[in-house]
Structures are given as structure tokens and as C-alpha cells.
Amino acid sequence: MPRTDVTQMLFSKVYPLLVQKAQRKGRTREEVAQVTAWLTGYSPEELARLEQSALCYGDFFRQAPALNPNRVRIIGKICGVRVEEIQDPLMREIRYLDKLVDELAQGKPMEKILRT
Q1: What percent of the chain has pLDDT over 90?
Q2: Contact, 51 vs 29, CB < 8 A?
């Protein structure tokens, strides 16, 4: 069975899964929006609007208003792969957000997650 290309999936389908993952561990939708905004430059209001749109996940990252230059400080494993070693730039951006949400779910303080 062929794998689904996450870049073609709808943002409106993927983002709620990230929110649910964080919420299962006691974090909030607002915290997920905060880390997503930090990474991409979208405002929480834009994220809410995009969650109601037909935008694909790949385009969400391709059209990001301002990718945070400190995102390269996000390191570690996600799905058994070191995020800093991912060669495909788009997939690396996707995995950066996965890693930030993982760190939220693990209970890390926001200032550590946002690399401040």
C-alpha cells in the first residue's frame, strides 16, 4: 500500500491531530498555536482561518509568512529520524513542527521549546 504524502494532506486534517496530541498531555490549543506561530510566522487568527480552508499541509509551510531563523536550533529525533539530518527542506519544516508539539506534549516549558 503506498504511503500518503503528508505534504498533500489538508492542513485542516493534520493540525487538529497536533492539537489533540498536545491536549492529551494537558497542553492547550493556544500553546500549539503559539509554537506554530513561532515557527511559521502565521498569527493565531491566521491559523484558525487556515484550519477552515482547503490549504494542503505542504503549502502551509511553503507560504509561511516568516519562518523563524532559530528553527535550525530544533534538534533531536522525531519518528526515529534526527530532524536536523532530514535532507528534504519541506519535510524538515514539517518535522520541526512535529518536534515542537512533541516537546509541548512532554511538558517542556515554553521558553525552552521556543529556543529563547
Answers
A1: 91
A2: no
pLDDT(56) > 90: yes
Given a contact cutoff of 8 angstroms between Cβ atoms, the answer to whether 56 and 13 are in contact is no
Position of cell 500518503?
4
Reported as type and span, the H/E element at residue 80 is: none
Q: Are 99 and 42 in contact (CB under 8 A)?
A: no
Burial category of 22 from C-beta neighbours within 10 Å (exposed 0-12, middle 13-18, buried 19 and up):
buried
Structure confidence at residue 62 as a pLDDT band (50, 70, 90): very high
Does pLDDT of 4 surpass 80?
no
Q: How far apart are CA 45 and CA 51, in angstroms?
A: 10
Give the integer Cα–Cα distance in Å for 22 and 82: 21
Amino acid identity at 21:
K
| Dist CA 27 CA 11 (whole Å) | 20
